[in-house]
Structures are given as structure tokens and as C-alpha cells.
Amino acid sequence: MVVIIASSFTFLLLLIINIALVLATTSIAIFGAKDWCKDSCGNVSVPYPFGIGPDCFLNSWFEVSCNESSTPPTILKKINMEVFNFSYDLGYGREYLRVKSPVILHNCSGRERETKNQTVDLTGSPFFYSGRNKFIAAGCNNKALIARIKPRIVGCESTCNGDTLFGTSNPNKTCNGSTCCETIIPLYLQTFNASFESKTSSGPQGSKLAFVVDEEWLNFNITNPSDLLNMDSVLALIDWALPNGSTPLISSESVQTYVMYTSESSNISWRYVCSDGYRGNPYLPIGCQDIDECEEERHKISCGDATCVNVPGFYRCEGSKTWIIALGSLEKTKIFTSKELDKATNNFNNNRVVGQGGQGTVYKGMLADGRIVVVKKSIAMVVEEVEHFIIEVLILSQVNHRNVVKLLGCFLETEVPLLVYEFISNGTLFQYLHDKSEEFPLSWETRLRIAKETAEALWYLHSSASIPIYHRDIKSSNILLDEKFKAKVSDFGTSRSIHYTNIGF
Questions:
Q1: Would the N or C end of the chain have less CB density within 10 A of its end CB?
Q2: Which residues of 95-108 are buried (b: 16+ CB within 10 A; e: fewer)?
Q3: How far apart are CA 270 and CA 256, in angstroms?
């Protein structure tokens, strides 16, 4: 036992030292797109480190072939994968590739395709399926599994009444096993094919299919699920990271570094994003430029009669009797209209409920710009609960940290207040620690990283926020996990800050 503990500690120590040594080498930036490089192909923008033509991409993995007469016009040359767009997601602060991913069919008369020719294999590349995708299968008496990922077993089962592919029409487009089924995919998935089995030998043996897909694309582009029988592919999100050994960018206030460690391959990879309050391409020299928040109407309004003054990374209000500061961000607290939130949640449809408790109900929704959010609808409040609501708005509106859930806005024109947050896709830490039915128990490395990220968030709140904030209710159910199982501290209703306490709270 002593040897095991010592070995684990030694491994962790060596890993931390390795990361520290690599970080120490990040003082010089030697890569960037050349002036003569094309930055688009047809209507598809191709941002660096991807590129078209010699000396226009970071390395051969990021080389893009351009054929404007094709649809789509861009192909990642080395892995021969068609790219529809390089989509920058403001909510996640990173870039994804939206690519063709095969629909695997089985027992489809006249439509059978050899599954061996449909295999996606990204092994050895810096690319992998994003955790924002879902594995979806459909068909009667169907048990579908993701192939070639042993010893893991990932898949789902579906059934239906009758002999139709999807059974009874499901207007909510949810796959619950009775018509189709869905499950999350393993982290850093680099290969995809599917195998099919029948749940019972006596049941119907009709058409079956399976695919990995960007769930948002599926929900808003497929109106009749049976249309998938006639499709060769769907769109999926591919994530990527810079391989260890690539020269990182210079460390600066405008650029943040993500260190990604894959325990299965013992690889360390890198991603960069512009810091909050900056916008641009973090892979280019001086690519992240400060945003002038004072040019945006919502910040002028938030300053009231004071003067909005832009400073690097944020803005402040000067000349007001009330002290106001807002940390820079691509998203700041917004006052939503009832029409916006009704549309986002389908009039607060019960099918959109993702959580419910003593303080109210949480709905999942989509804003007009395509962002997925959650709307927290509180129950009727007594005075003390109104205080908690106000505190949560005040605190989260001046907090900006990657491990703290982001408040996007609120609605104040009814007796029941509403808060709008970024959507965190993988639930709470509590469910992964205590729910035995979870398909992917958290590894020791993942648990350690979640603890570290939570500690970093608390350190920021206590020491680096413009006003010290004390959460006072840290527990596993208040730690949300995103698609990469990164921690997001939430639920600030019982928090206190020195500033707000001094004004009567």
C-alpha cells in the first residue's frame, strides 16, 4: 500500500513539474499566419493555426485543402475530413470544427453500407470528438454500441411499437429509449464505428442506425427523424489541441492557456483562448485585442449618469455616487424581455425542465443567437429570499472566472424573478460521486483536477475579485461540470461580499 501511494504521488509530482517546465518555455511566440495566406475558402473562414497553402498552417495536421466548387469547399487534408465551418463558440470560449460524421446503417433494404468503410479514425492526430456531441441510435429491438473502444462499453438500447424506424412521432425530439436512445460519448473519443445487436430474438428485426452528432444541429435541422435513413452523414463537432512540442504563445494578460492532460495516452496538449475582455485569434501575435465595452449600449446603460471608461480587459464607471465596476467579458449582465425568455424556453414548457428544488425551477433554453442557456425561475419569495436573489445578481455580475458559472442576464418585471445562466452540460459533481447508474465514473485524475479548479475559483473569489466574495455553501451539488468535466462553481444565493454586506445585506 505504501508503495502504491508513493508511486501515485511521484507520478503526480512529475506531471506537475513537467507542466511547469513547459510553461516556463512559453516566453517566445514563433508562429503565425503570413501576410500572403488566404483566410477563407468560398464562404468558409479558415483561421490560423489552420491554413491553406505552404507556410500558412501550424503543421501538417492543420493544413486545409480548398476546392470552392465542392460542398463543403474545405477538407482537413491529412485526415481527409470535410469541414463545414470553423465555429467559434462564445459560450465555451473556444473553436470547434463542424464536420461530416457518418450515419451507420444496419438491415436497411437498398441502403446498406459497409460499416468498415464508415469508420472514423483520428488516432495519433490532435483531433477528437467534442464532448458536446451525443451518440444516438434508433430502430426497433436495437442495441447499438460504439465499436473499437474496448475495454469500455458505450451504447444504448431502443425499441418501438410496430415496425417503423422511430415508432411514434416524438415532437420533443428527445431519445428516451422508446423511439430512439442517446448517451454521452467518452472523453477524447478518436475512433467511431457502431455495432448492432437485437435486444431479443423474438422482436422485430427492422432497420437500425447509429451516429455521433452535434445535438444542437440535430434538433434544429432534422424535422422528421426517419429522414436519417436517406442520409449518409450528419454534422458533428470536432475538438482539437496543440500537440506537446508545439511552441506556445507568449503568456500575456490577453491570452489564457488551457493545459489538457489525457490519462489514457499520457499526453499533454494545449489550447489558447482570448481572456475575458479581449476578442480575436489567440494563435496570432497580438491576436487578442481589447474590447471597448463603452461602445456597447448595455455598458453605457449600466453606468447610468456616470461616465463609462474603457481600460484593458474591463471597464469602469466614473463620476457616479455609487461605486460600480464590471469585469471585462464578451457577455455582461443583460436585462432580458419576457418575449425573449418565453421564446427561449417554449413558454416555460415542462419538457424544458432540467432541475427543480425548494427555490424554484430551472429550464433549458436557446436564445435567438443560438446560445444554449438555463433560466432559473424562482418561486414566490419572502423578503429574505429576495435578498438572496439580489445578492446573486450583484455578485455574479462582477465575477468573471473560467471556473465560476457565468450569469448572462436577468428579468425583473414580474413578481417572480428570473436569472439566465450559461448552460453547463454535464450536471453536478454530486451525481457523479453518488449516482451508481452513471456510465462514466470519475477517474482519480479527474477528481483531483476538479478539486484543483474549485480551489482556484474560491481563491479568485476570496483574493482576486474586485471585491472579496465568500461563497459559504460549497458542496458537490453546487459544483457543475461542463463537457470536459471542468468545474464551475454555482449557486451564490447565500454568499456574502464585504461591499454588499456594508450596504445593508
A1: N
A2: bbbbbbbbbbbbeb
A3: 10
502, containing H or E segment:
helix 498-502
Direct distance between the N- and C-terminal alpha carbons of the chain, in angstroms, rounded to an integer: 51
User: What does the pLDDT profile of the chain (505 residues) look like in tens digits?
Assistant: 333 333 444 444 444 444 444 443 333 333 456 778 898 998 888 988 899 999 899 889 999 999 988 888 899 999 999 999 887 554 445 678 999 999 988 877 655 554 445 789 998 898 999 888 999 888 888 888 888 776 667 788 877 654 444 444 444 455 655 667 888 888 888 989 888 888 776 665 677 888 999 988 887 777 666 677 778 889 999 998 887 666 554 556 777 766 665 545 556 677 787 877 788 888 888 788 888 878 876 655 566 667 788 877 777 777 644 333 333 333 446 778 888 888 889 888 888 888 776 567 889 988 887 788 888 887 655 555 555 565 556 666 667 778 888 888 877 666 667 888 888 888 888 888 887 665 667 888 888 889 888 888 887 777 655 556 666 678 888 889 988 888 998 876 544 443 433 333 3
Rounded CA-CA distance 425/443 in Å is: 19
Neighbour count for residue 439 (Cβ, 10 Å)? 12
DSSP for 279-293? EE-TTSTT-EEE--G
**Class of the 333-502 domain?**
mainly alpha
Phi (first) and psi of residue 70, to 5 degrees: -100, 165
Q: Are 127 and 79 in contact (CB under 8 A)?
A: yes
Query: 390: which 3 cell numbers?
Result: 439580489
- Active-site residue numbers? 473
Nearest to 180 by CA among 160, 200, 155: 160
**CA dist., res. 492 & res. 474, Å (int):** 9
Q: Where are the domains of the chain?
A: 2-30+243-290, 37-78, 79-240, 333-502
